[in-house]
Design brief:
Blueprint lengths: L13 E4 L5 H7 L5 E5 L9 H10 L4 E4 L13 H14 L4 E4 L2 E4 L2 E7 L5 H18 L4 E3 L14 H12 L2 E5 H11 L3 H7 L5 E6 L3 E2 L4 E2 L8 H14 L3 E4 L8 H19 L11
Helix pairs in contact: 4-5, 5-7, 7-8, 8-9
Bound molecules: fe (ii) ion.
Amino acid sequence: MQTLAEKKLPGLGFGLGLRTQHYQSILETSPDIDWFEVISENYMVRGGKPLYFLDRIRADYPMVMHGVSLSIGSSTEIDKDYLRDLRLLADRIQPAWISDHLCWTGIHGQNMHDLLPLPYTEETASHVAERVNQVQDYLGRRILLENVSSYASYVDSTMSEWEFISLLCEKTDCLLLLDINNIYVSSYNHDFDPKAFIDGIPAHRVQQMHLAGHHNHGDYIIDTHDAPVIDPVWDLYRYALERLGQVSTMIERDDNIPELAELAHELDTARNIAAQVFQSSPVEKSLVA
Ligand SMILES: [Fe+2]
């Protein structure tokens, strides 16, 4: 593998997650969306309708791959079959980049189907870094790792989440997928300043941002991806752009999924905030019918 430079990949603009409910309207209306993020595992199959639609939509739009099952933080050996299938999908759709979460999802073959946080220690950073390097070597490219929403923390942690992420970046030269909603959720649940998180992240490694909605239960927030982005998260997004510069951004909606036009309209809010921050022309309205 060639020496990895501390340089970001070209940006893509403003995207949405590709969801089955929108396949037909994307093909019929060619919406003004710059790119789509696909959930890798949904397409790591041998055939069928999802791949049929994936190929047709890929012909018209750039794509990135986003996984949920790499379990980069686990102590169980990385699943070689999973990596093989991930690479096959990448060969098929030639994504601009590949991401997964900085978390663990299970151990000894048991999948918890949840994105579980890690203890933020030197030992954990070394352990995860070795695995990130293994994955990057196998895929022949840098991967993006995403900060997760969390509801528990470890008494063993010796550093903040952003210090841990920065250390991991130094050890692996990986890139980052910064989920602004997840920062907000975790800051609420663990009572830290979300701006300190953004201030502590190496700006030159942030390749992509996620935005999403959540459910606030008063004492805590659950990250549900079933509602529009709330104003404090938009404010945090503006702060992140001011500090980090232009970053490819998308909205994640995984439940209570509205019409494509509604999500495209929500994405215009991100476009307009970026236009204000970088003093370019605002978007009047979405071009999606
Ligand atoms: Fe996310």
